[in-house]
Each structure stands twice: as C-alpha cells, then as structure tokens.
Amino acid sequence: MMMDTTTTARTTEAEAAAPPRAFKVKVKHWRTLASWSWNAGDDVCGICRNPFDGCSPEAKYPGDDSPVVWGTCRHAFHLQCITQWLSSQTEQRCPICRQNWEFKSAMETDE
Amino acid sequence: MDLSRVQKEIREISQDKASGISVRVLGEDLTRLEGTLKGPKDTVYEGGIFVVDIEIKGVYPFEPPKMRFKSKIWHPNVSSQNGAICLDILKDQWSPALTIKTALLSLQALLCSPEPNDPQDAVVAKQYLNDMPLFEQTARHWTRTYASETASQKNLKQLLEMGFSEEDASTALDNAGGDLNTALAALLG
Questions:
Q1: Where is the RING-type domain (chain A) (predicted)?
Q2: pLDDT digits over A72-87, tens only?
Q3: Helices and strands per DSSP (H, E), number in chain B
Q4: What interhelical angle do B100-112 and B3-15 show, nearest 10?
Q5: Burial of B148 (0-12, 13-18, 19+ CB in 10 A)
Q6: What is the mean pLDDT of chain B?
Q7: Is the CB of residue B8 less than 8 Å away from at least one CB of chain A?
Q8: Above pLDDT 70, what percent of chain B?
Q9: B172 and B185 in contact (C-beta within 8 Å)?
Q10: Do residues B17 and B53 both lie within one domain?
Q11: B74, burial (CB in 10 Å: exposed 0-12, middle 13-18, buried 19+)
Q12: Which domains can be identified in chain A, with CATH numbers?
C-alpha cells in the first residue's frame, strides 16, 4: 500500500515539473516494403487456371520460380505451363487463339 | 494430373445452373466423372438427358478428357453401338484452354448440328443423308427410350420391383446404355 501511494505521488510530481513541449522523433533506420504483380490482363493462367500472382502446378513459389510469359499474340501463360503444352505438340500454337506461338521479347512486353 | 484445376472445374460446373450440363465424380479420385447434358430445344434430342462418361487422364489438361456417350443416341457422329464420339476438339483440336464444361457444351452443339460427312457411325450418317424423315423418327424414338429421365426412372423402378437391389439395377442399366432388356439379361447372368 505504501509503495503504491509513493509511486502515484512521484508521477504527479513529474507531470507538474515538465511543461508540455514539441514532440521530437529521430529516425535511426527504416525498412521498405513493396509489392508487385504481373500486368497480364487476365488474372489467371489459361492453362492451369491458377492466378498469375500464384504459381503454376510445377512451381513451388510464385515470382521468379514461376514467371509469366507472353506470346506475340499477347496471350500470357505461366512459363512452365506453355512450355509443357508446346513440347507436347508438333505445331506450336497459342492455346487460346491458335495463332502460331512465338515468345514476345521482354523489351516488347514492357508497355 | 492437375488436381486443383479439375476440382475448380467441377465446382464451376455445379455453380452454373443455366447451361443444362452437370457433372459428378465417380469413385475415389477425379479420374472418372459422369456428365449429363440436356438435348437441345427444337432438335430430335429435345427432352432427353444424355449421360456422358468422362475419363481424365494424368496428362490433363495437356491431353483432352476422354468422353463417350453412356446413353444410347442416334446421331451421325456418335457410335450407336458404343457411344464413341467423333468431335475434333476431343482429338487433335484439343487445347488446354478448353475445359470439361466447354467440351460438354460442344457435345450439346454437336447434337444441334450433326456432321454426316465426317461420321462416327456410317449407318446413321447414311440414313441422315438419304432418308431424313426416318432418321428423325429413329432419333426421337431413341431419345424417348434411352435418354428421357422418366424412361430411366421407369426402367429402374421395374427392376427394383423384380427384386434387384438399387445398386445392381442402376449399374446394369448404366452398362446397358439404359436398355431395360439388356440390363435384365445381364442381371440374370
């Protein structure tokens, strides 16, 4: 009981002694956080039907492990999905529009 | 097999009540499905519910699902004997962008517009080209006999009344493409 009373008294004393002043903060270090997503029109891959921001059934993690690629016909798929399709076919065609499939280069994709 | 894609597809079909198609899973895994489609309006198949056997192989969706009519059907592009289907997208025109649902819808479209020049059943195709009235009469008769819901219910009821178990009776009817006498013969062994 004695202890409690003393503590309370001290706090009150301190508040009275310190007049209100501007609150100053010094930032010592910070961390940044960014998010990104594939800019691929449709949000799911036309082959595996998983989101582009997710990954193909073959991959473990989204992102670099499961990249998204475009054809010159502008249709996008997970790299693993379209590769598996093309390797099973003699004629290389887009699964969606059936035009001849050619990979669009990264520079062209950057719109 | 891409299980998550097949699961997603089944869910989507069950949510869509408007298209006249349905699908259910047979057995433990997702390799064997059974689809149904309604005979299109204003065709000789109107009023029929056609059952389609679907087999999903391990390489799906990089190879098409195997489909076969379980209900007997009189159509130039379907075998009247075993239900085998001649449809390009189920063969060399398959694309992994297609689905079980689009394939069933394509079958429905095939019922609307037969291709007698690329037949699966030469006898039916010949009749289609040479004697349209007889073709239509036969196709309507087969629809009523083998593919109408009431017909299959009636057949099942009859077998149950004879004392066969529901499981045995419906399996026998399935195997017989809905034909009562064939099913009965099989049950009597």
A1: 45-98
A2: 998 999 999 999 999 9
A3: 7, 4
A4: 50
A5: middle
A6: 92
A7: yes
A8: 100
A9: no
A10: yes
A11: buried
A12: 39-111 (3.30.40.10)
On whether both B169 and B87 belong to a single domain, the answer is no
Are the beta carbons of B95 and A81 separated by less than 8 Å?
A: no
Residues B80 and B165 reside in one and the same domain: no
Domains contained in chain B, number: 2
CA distance A86 to A25: 59
Report chain A's mean pLDDT, rounded to a whole number: 79
Indicate whether B36 and B86 sit together in one domain: yes
Residues 103-132, chain B: which have Cβ within 8 Å of A?
none
Residues in chain A closer than 8 A to B8 (CB atoms): 49
Tens of pLDDT, residue by residue over B128-159, are 999 999 999 999 999 999 998 777 778 888 88
Closest CA to B54 of B99, B14, B95: B99
Domain that holds residue B140: 3-147
Name the strands in the sheet holding B66-69, side by side, starting at the edge strand that comes first in the sequence: B21-25, B32-38, B49-55, B66-69
Same domain, B117 and B170: no
Tell me which amino acid residue A65 is.
D
Tell me, what CATH number does B21's domain have? 3.10.110.10
Query: Does residue B80 register a pLDDT over 60?
Result: yes
Annotated active-site residue B86? The verdict is yes
Supply B15's token pair.
């949510």
- Same domain for B25 and B81, yes or no, is yes
DSSP B19-66: SSEEEEE-SSSSSEEEEEEEPPTTSTTTT-EEEEEEE--TTTTSSPPE
pLDDT surpassing 50 at residue A21: yes
Count of CB contacts below 8 A, A vs B?
A: 32
